[in-house]
Amino acid sequence: MILLPAVLAGLIAGWIRSKKNKQPYIPGHLKLWWLVFIAFIPQWVAFSLPFTSTKLPDNWAAVVLVGSLVVLLIFTWFNRKQPGFWLLGLGLIFNLIVIGLNGGFMPISPEAVYRLVPNAPQGSWHIGERLGTGKDIVLLTLFTNLWFLSDRFLLPTWLNYPVAFSVGDVLIAAGAFWILWAMGGPQKVID
Fold this sequence. Notes:
two-stranded parallel sheet
């Protein structure tokens, strides 16, 4: 995902901004901040831990993904007056809609998979099934609901960071960057 580089860039830009403003880099007052962990932990267990990601049935993995996005939307709603949260929320909504309309996973086209993993062994993935133990499901564009919101973008190969991402992911990353950058500016208490 493109979120990690955006978070790192946002932290660095926010820290530089705070030094320029001669003030400490302090996170703003975020309501229900612990919901981020509530959303992250099940996704980590379902998609990142080798033992659990291979054992969890697809229907449960889909529930985890959709549930995590809903929890993040609740967190976003309660912090919507903070800089960047409306952008982050819009990205979450786009991802939730396309995932919800395509069986609980983020659709990715076979063409994107070929470009993402060009040396994958024949038969290592199939149309209509999850791509490995990740959050994507391989679907033909013709049979993808709202295909334009799917994981259809890839970074240039010279970056050597093979990742597919969606319009929603771009908005989430931009929102996260904006939130972290804003924390380096004048602190305001927003209710």
